[in-house]
Amino acid sequence: MNIDGLRVAITGAGRDTGRLLAEAFAEHGAQLFLAARSLAAAERVAGVISQRGPGQAEAFRCDLSEVDSVRAFAATLADRTEYLDVLINNGAEYIEGDDLGDVSDEQIERVMAAGGTGTLLLTKHLMPLLRASPRPDVINIISACGEVGHRRSGAHPAFYAAKHAHAGLAEILSHRLRPEGIRVVSLFPPDFVQDGPRQANSDLTARSVVDCVLFAVGQPRDCFIREFHFEQVRH
Q1: Of 56, 79, 146, 198, whose CB is crowded by the most CB atoms within 10 A?
Q2: What is the mean pLDDT of the chain?
């Protein structure tokens, strides 16, 4: 697995799976650009990583539900680096609820904006940096909620809708960017836990999701893995 020195941008990097992704890539020597809705959260993660090494990290604010914030992050990144090897679209806002009326209009708007418009615009604005890399990858942490027919999550319908939007974007990009050698890899994990025993009868863990990402990025350039789908523990 040759990840040392790769320039990697991760959204939603201030906590949970985003933080684990950042730490894992840093352990392999990657140079990280960490974005989060809370700059303070991203700075905490970047500080720990830069002290621990071998990879180094910078922190940025990027609220995917705000168009100006997305554009500002992309512009700042373009000032920091001439190219980007890996973009990990991990940022999303999760909300629960069975009925459309269980959450406010404002929450629905944020979830849809972050998972749909914000992710699309960030990918658009970072595409020049990816095209400048000799080995570009776009990694999409979607969700089983983005699979057709999946009904086992307690997520609100708005989260399902946002994840279907993300899945649609990833599918067409995989097809259209393949001739350029840009790999677009999507993961569709079911609801998972941040940590756990990682056994066959246990829920999927975030660390296992991270390992799948590392595996995909570390493959030779003739290996185009389009999607990871997971069996879910039946309770």
Answers
A1: 146
A2: 96
